[in-house]
Amino acid sequence: GESVGLHLPTLSVQEGDNSIINCAYSNSASDYFIWYKQESGKGPQFIIDIRSNMDKRQGQRVTVLLNKTVKHLSLQIAATQPGDSAVYFCAETMEYGNKLVFGAGTILRVKS
Amino acid sequence: NAGVTQTPKFQVLKTGQSMTLQCAQDMNHEYMSWYRQDPGMGLRLIHYSVGAGITDQGEVPNGYNVSRSTTEDFPLRLLSAAPSQTSVYFCASSLARIPRSTDTQYFGPGTRLTVL
Which residues of chain B have pLDDT under 70? Predict the structure, then answer.
């Protein structure tokens, strides 16, 4: 809901434009990363993942880029639509580990 | 197939009251977990279960109890509510402790709890 979004960075984009959402992760040993989408009033939804042996992975309209040198992930959404408006956050873990560490997220607002 | 259901959707408690947040899944997932989500922060793991009869503590377990008597249900109990427990609570179920793809992990819709 709205209270979750307090103090989060916000990205506003025009419908049809591409969006780029960034995430800095904390543990250099992390080797598996997930992006989640959370719409207002709903639980998070797993949208795409990437392993550390890759630097790019593409899904349907979404692409995740991984830069291990600077511990940075980005999520690119092509041709952003109003239905993409949500909070997006990344999670990191070691693939054979036992704990997901979640980032706080970024609010994406799509203007029609 | 309802996925993960949580009840209630909203709850207001007074300090010191106890209550149980319900979580159920119908996907036969072994792994279930409870998270809390606070403004400006990432999800934090409270407790988790790797199967019926097995539970363990997560990152922020104090003030909460869980049990897992069946595969389907994983209730979260607040023993004596405190204002610091005001949060949105999410239950999740997955095929494995770390999900591997988009169809292996599901979150419930959340319970918004306010403790006065």
Answer: 1
CA dihedral (A53, A98, A33, A48) positive or negative: positive
What average pLDDT is seen over chain A? 91
Q: A95 in contact with B at a CB cutoff of 8 Å?
A: yes
Distance from CA of B70 to the nearest CA of A (A): 22
SS3 A5: helix
The reply to whether A39 touches chain B by the CB within 8 Å rule is: no
pLDDT at A96 over 70: yes
Report the C-alpha gap between A81 and A4 in whole angstroms.
Answer: 22
Q: Give the span between the Cα atoms of A104 and A99, in whole angstroms.
A: 16
Report the DSSP pairing between strands A56-58 and A45-51: unpaired
CA distance A52 to A89: 18
Query: CA geometry: angle at A88 spanning A86 and A71, to 5°?
Result: 165
